[in-house]
Backbone:
């Protein structure tokens, strides 16, 4: 990663962007089943990217600090923001998996509903004489086809 002349400023930009993404994610999550799976997926990816960038910048900032109390306060602030982003990521992940699970269930239900029980077929006893079968066809089922066969 490129070194930053002011890592706190860079982290501030990423945190601001993450806050906007969190607001958009909460709005989408509040829609419930009406929320867009695509939008939630994009927000999930972007928030995951932001969290990793913020963590890298957090490490750079802490390494540059000398005062122990300052490091402790900075670490607590970093953890608070990481937890906030992580909770939204977990909610988005659960919502996306829930939508996918519902879609799979709908597909399974459609498959189950498309199968219907067919009526039982009644097969007549066959004596083994093909002429009798043709005669049966000619008398009962397909007189025209049977006539063509007899003419052969």
Residues:
């Amino acid at each position: 990663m490129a070194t930053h002349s002011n890592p706190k400023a860079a982290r501030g930009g990423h945190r601001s962007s993450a806050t906007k993404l969190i607001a958009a994610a909460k709005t989408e999550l509040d829609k419930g089943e009406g929320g867009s799976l695509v939008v939630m997926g994009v927000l999930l990816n972007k928030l995951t990217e932001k969290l990793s960038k913020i963590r890298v910048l957090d490490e750079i900032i802490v390494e540059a600090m000398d005062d122990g109390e300052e490091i402790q306060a900075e670490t607590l602030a970093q953890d608070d923001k990481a937890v906030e982003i992580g909770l939204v990521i977990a909610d988005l992940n659960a919502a996306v998996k829930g939508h996918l699970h519902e879609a799979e269930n709908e597909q399974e239900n459609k498959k189950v509903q498309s199968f219907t029980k067919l009526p039982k077929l009644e097969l007549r006893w066959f004596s083994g004489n093909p002429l009798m079968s043709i005669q049966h066809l000619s008398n009962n089922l397909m007189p025209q086809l049977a006539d063509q066969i007899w003419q052969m």
Notes: The CA atoms of residues 55 and 133 lie 83 Å apart.
